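Backbone-to-sequence.
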């Protein structure tokens, strides 16, 4: 799904992005509700990037990557931690592209996400290559989502990848509420290197690195 966001584009930067787990839902400009084999996901486009809400019988968690005033955790290179009964993994990188390469990459990503049943993309008015996009899937018991945050004024494209799966020991016990916090963070904010390749996609459209 592709939408034009009803807000003005502000001159934010990749360096302004922060990461957080467990935040309450923030005001969203567009949302997409999904159910992937019993897991409910809500993909949310914010005025300052994205939020994903995940809910199962065993509990819930949220991931926020956004430009939020007062946030103390910058965008990390990688996170691996336990969130209640789940194993949570997050990775991020920042690509720096020439103007021509940036335009082509933006068009390619927007076409991919707009045509995908589990995709949500929002373009900011006044700048066709300023966008935020999210794409989700479920594979082999894990829920995956990828996001892209475009900053054409700097030629920067931030890509993130998340995987959440039930721990084997937790699958044998009864439901419990999941809690999340900011521990288990490593890495730096920019030049984060390669994002792990991850699993193949559920659907035919390919997912770009």
């Amino acid at each position: 799904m592709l939408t034009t966001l009803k807000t003005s584009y502000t001159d934010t930067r990749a360096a302004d992005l922060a990461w957080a787990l467990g935040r309450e839902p923030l005001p969203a400009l567009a949302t997409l509700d999904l159910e992937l084999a019993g897991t409910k996901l809500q993909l949310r486009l914010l005025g300052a990037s994205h939020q994903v809400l995940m809910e199962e019988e065993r509990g819930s968690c949220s991931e926020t990557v956004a430009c939020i005033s007062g946030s103390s955790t910058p965008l990390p290179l990688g996170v691996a931690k336990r969130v209640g009964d789940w194993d949570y993994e997050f990775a991020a990188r920042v690509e720096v592209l020439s103007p021509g390469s940036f335009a082509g990459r933006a068009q390619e990503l927007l076409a991919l996400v707009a045509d995908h049943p589990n995709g949500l993309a929002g373009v900011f008015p006044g700048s066709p290559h300023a966008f935020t996009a999210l794409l989700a899937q479920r594979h082999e018991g894990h829920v995956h989502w990828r996001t892209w945050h475009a900053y054409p004024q700097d030629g920067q494209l931030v890509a993130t990848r998340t995987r959440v799966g039930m721990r084997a020991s937790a699958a044998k016990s009864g439901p419990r509420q999941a809690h999340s916090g900011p521990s288990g963070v490593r890495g730096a904010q920019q030049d984060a290197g390669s994002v792990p390749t991850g699993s193949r996609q559920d659907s035919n459209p390919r997912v770009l690195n």
